[in-house]
Write a structure and sequence with these properties.
Helix content: 40-55%
Number of helices: 17
Strand content: 5-15%
Radius of gyration: 20 Å
Length: 394
């Protein structure tokens, strides 16, 4: 029986990843901005919502299928875009995309990925989205759009909550850069994690595959890649830029990083077909509202005009069920699959997806829900609201 066989939930995979990865790599997955209050708040928000099951329903068949970006997916959760997967395991983005395809869900490739748009497209026949920023170099943004179109990606995800990089203090303490350039303590830590070290030595040189050619054109050293990306983030992006990208792409487009109902309305007006309610996993603005807390207001504002997805804090199938009941069409998961990747590569990712899928089906059955359409707000009780109502004598 392997360690992966003994992983019964996402927290078990997290512990395995912590054991296998050097501290800097693990903290890059596990950490958030500043005091990490928003990151913790994303988890706490799910704990404030309780499920109200219905009984004596025939749940011998439970169907968690849904659609996203016009694609049929077998599960109500998708792979969120995350950067530099090769830092955690040489299977990297290709392995994650393959695991997502076998699980019947959609994979999202990050602009900051260590595998190119084209190589990921060739690795899996499953549904795929490409995540993009509005860069200072608009020619680079246009290049990405055309490459995603040529590689037949199903959707584009425009991330809008990075006008400047968040203050991730764990990474600063670890001397973390993209690609990794670690100091003496980091090197000693890597030596203690010999399995990861062997993989790192054997793997091709790590790079930000989708922008490496731009660095080469500028005759810049690979160590400047992270600086190049940081300088490309635009702090002057507006809704006009989002509209321009939507028009240039011309296909399904999600705007990710929306927390305010007015911004959700503007996203739809700008041409978005979907909105991702997200605070970047607590990695940008510490003190921001939890994604789950922001979800109801955004669903009420635009839920009948476009798809609404939730991102942030999901660790259990019950979290996914709660988000669906609040009005999300589906969810994105990031850290859960990265823990699996860090623990055991592609097999670990598949295990993470299997765990979440099994939990989701089980919770649906225990809720008396045979399909996602059976889940709505009558299935939920919010502790804070319930306490307030009790105090008012309602």
């Amino acid at each position: 029986m392997t360690a992966l066989d003994r992983a019964h939930n996402i927290e078990d995979l997290r512990r395995l990843a912590k054991r296998r990865l050097p501290q800097a790599m693990f903290d890059y997955i596990d950490g958030g901005a500043e005091d990490e209050g928003t990151m913790r708040g994303n988890r706490d928000a799910f704990c404030e919502v309780s499920l109200i099951p219905r009984q004596l329903v025939d749940v011998s068949k439970v169907d968690p299928k849904t659609t996203a970006f016009g694609c049929d997916i077998d599960l109500p959760f998708m792979i969120a875009p995350t950067g530099m997967s090769a830092m955690f395991h040489p299977d990297a983005e290709r392995g994650v995309a393959r695991a997502a395809g076998r699980s019947g869900t959609l994979y999202s490739l990050s602009t900051m990925g260590s595998t190119s748009i084209e190589d990921v497209a060739a690795s899996s026949s499953g549904s795929k989205a490409f995540q993009i920023y509005a860069f200072r170099d608009r020619a680079l943004t246009s290049e990405f759009i055309e490459r995603a179109r040529s590689a037949r990606y199903d959707a584009l995800i425009l991330t809008v909550d990075v006008p400047v990089a968040g203050n991730r203090e764990r990474d600063l303490r670890n001397g973390m850069t993209l690609p990794p350039a670690l100091g003496l303590m980091g090197i000693l830590d890597i030596a203690r994690h010999w399995r990861w070290s062997l993989d790192y030595v054997r793997a091709p040189r790590m790079t930000l595959a989708n922008v490496a050619h731009r660095i080469a054109e500028a005759n810049a050293d690979i160590s400047t890649l992270s600086g190049y990306i940081a300088n490309q983030f635009s702090s002057s992006m507006t809704w006009d830029d989002a509209r321009s990208i939507a028009e240039e792409w011309g296909g399904p487009l999600a705007i990710k990083g929306v927390l305010h109902p007015d911004d959700a309305r503007r996203a739809v007006d700008a041409g978005a077909s979907a909105v991702v309610v997200s605070n970047h996993g607590g990695r940008q603005l510490d003190g921001a509202i939890a994604s789950m807390d922001a979800l109801p207001g955004i669903v009420d504002a635009i839920g009948d005009r476009c798809e609404v997805f939730l991102d942030g804090g999901i660790r259990r199938g019950s979290d996914i069920v709660k988000a669906i009941a609040l009005g999300a069409k589906a969810c994105f998961v990031g850290r859960p699959y990265l823990y699996g990747l860090g623990a055991a590569g592609e097999a670990g990712v598949e295990e993470a997806l299997t765990i979440l899928a099994s939990e989701t089906r089980r919770v649906m059955a225990l809720m008396g829900a045979t399909a996602l359409g059976d889940l709505d707000r009558t299935c939920l009780s919010h502790r804070t609201l319930a306490a307030s109502s009790h105090q008012r004598g309602e």
